Sequence to fold (171 residues):
Amino acid sequence: MIRRLLISAVLVFFIISCAVSLTSKKVIKNDIEMLYGPISVSQLYFDYPQWKKNEAQYKVSPDVIKQIASVQDNFDVKIFLATWCSDSRREVPRFLKIIKEAGLMDKLSMELFAVDRKLKLESGLAETYEIKRVPTFIFFKNGNEIGRIVESPEALLLEQDINVILNGTAK
Fold:
């Protein structure tokens, strides 16, 4: 009986998994193909599979990852990116790899927003958060901004900047 229930549950899960599929969310703005507005990581990687390859190719610093993994608090991250931007193509996949390698996916709430060439969003969020360059990673703890990384890391490695922000040593 339990075996039949387990098999049935697996079959239902498989059917639901197959039914959930992504379709392209690319738009054309000012003659440029891009994602625009709130997006998910799965949507980003679906529409731009090279970004997933960029994540896989990035080699993290194990020592810094250990320090990031020691973060005890939950935090939020808002990521403003542009699919047309070479800095976004480089840094966003690196960020995602760092967070995964540090085991922080369950400790963070992450929102991604794809902006247009004018760094705008219909929602006005880009103006609210004063986005001047992409990518911009804004970190929050208890609703308060605790740091941001704009365009590229200040340190040699992105994970070093993330570590400084999350472990409370940001200026």
Summary: The CA atoms of residues 54 and 166 lie 24 Å apart. The helical segments are 2-19, 41-47, 49-57, 62-69, 86-101, 125-128, 158-166. The longest strand covers residues 75-81. Residues 24-166 form a domain with the Glutaredoxin fold (CATH 3.40.30.10).
